[in-house]
Amino acid sequence: MLSSDQNIQTIRELCLNLKEYAELKAESVQVGLIRKLSILVTALIVGGIAFVLAAIIILFLSGTLALALAPHVGGTAIACLIVAGCYLLLGCIVYAKRTAWILNPIANFIGELFLKSDESIKEKLDGTE
Asked: Which residue ranges traverse the bilayer (predicted)?
């Protein structure tokens, strides 16, 4: 009888340890997910800010280019059309290369973020590869 009581106590302790392990593992997964999501949101915010700043810079440079071209091409309207045509051409090139230039890098970033270990992500973000 004594052996059976010890077995039951050992099984009870084992079940409690397994329950505690499962809770800790779930908490670890949550912390890892929050860490990776915060990296993703930070990248999106920094990318958005960089996009807005680049758009403002491009707007001013476009106006400057149009004004600089105006005396050489016969007027401001024609210069603005030339600049718009350049942007249309650039837009067509970006659209044609969207998979290689936009989709694949974003997919690689998200894949590495969620599928690689935390150490390799930290090295990549710090630039110490």
From this structure: 37-61, 73-96
What tokens were used for 82?
């030339």
Q: Which of 41, 112, 44, 38 is nearest to 121 (CA)?
A: 112
Distance from CA of residue 107 to its chain's centroid? Answer: 9
User: Please, are residues 101 and 91 in contact by the beta-carbon 8 Å criterion?
Assistant: no
* Domain ranges for the chain: 2-96
Which whole-number Å values give the CA distances from 31 to 27, 35, 38, 73, in the listed order?
6, 6, 10, 61
Nearest to 77 by CA among 57, 88, 69: 69
Contact 76, 67 (CB under 8 A): yes
pTM: 0.72
Report the distance separating Cα 108 and Cα 105, nearest Å: 5
